[in-house]
Amino acid sequence: MRFLIDRCAGSTIAEWLRQEGHDVLEARSLGPDPGDERLLLIALEQSRVVVTIDSDFGTIIFRDGASHSGLVRLPDVPANQRIDKMRVVFERHAADLAAGAIVTVRGDRIRVSF
To answer: What's the rounded Cα separation, in Å, for the pair 37 and 58?
Structure first.
């Protein structure tokens, strides 16, 4: 799977995804922060799922109707738990992510939207 990791999600999760065999682009490698709308467009153009802790991406998608290739939101997940939560997302919702779902993890709950 192809991912774009937002700066706030951290490089640890990016490295883990690479180790798992995924194609990972980190937003920090793109230079100065281009903003959430631009990151969402880059992800769409490259068929990447955005991974973030930022709620702004959901707002841009749901309120503004922006197109996307999928989104994983980890808004309340501490850095030391993100990899474990992503494992659960893959185990239960890999097909949903591949289909462009928006997956939001809050505590032990996972919500999937299209």
So the answer is: 11
Domain ranges of the chain: 2-113
CA distance 12 to 4: 13
CA distances from 8 to 36, 55, 82, 103 (A): 11, 11, 12, 17
pTM: 0.94
pLDDT per residue over 71-95, tens digit each?
A: 999 998 998 999 999 999 999 999 9
Classify 84 as helix, strand or coil: helix
d(CA 41, CA 50): 10
For the chain, strand residue ranges (E) read 2-5, 23-26, 49-52, 71-73, 102-106, 109-113
As a whole number of angstroms, the longest Cα–Cα distance in the chain is 35
